[in-house]
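Page 42, continued from yesterday. The earlier attempt failed because a stray header line got pasted into the input along with the sequence. Redoing it now with the clean sequence only.
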Amino acid sequence: MQRGKWVLENILGIIPPDPPPNVPALKEAPTGSVPAEQTMRQRMEQHRANPACASCHRMMDPIGFTLETLTGSGSGEPRIR
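This time it went through. Structure tokens are written below.
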């Protein structure tokens, strides 16, 4: 969650630790496969299943999910889920 990390660092002044070296990056699923139909939120839930990831994502994800419908410049309309 890049937006969540940015808010933590630049607005709240909280620097989350770097990810552990043995944690793989979140992979994109191939188009047309069942995992490709997962939302980012669902994919992040799977990522947080790793305790090493969950410790930081517990802080970042709620902030990032709140801002997920906005573009980098802050424009966009919130979607009702």
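Notes: The CA atoms of residues 70 and 76 lie 5 Å apart.
Reminder to self: strip header lines before submitting.
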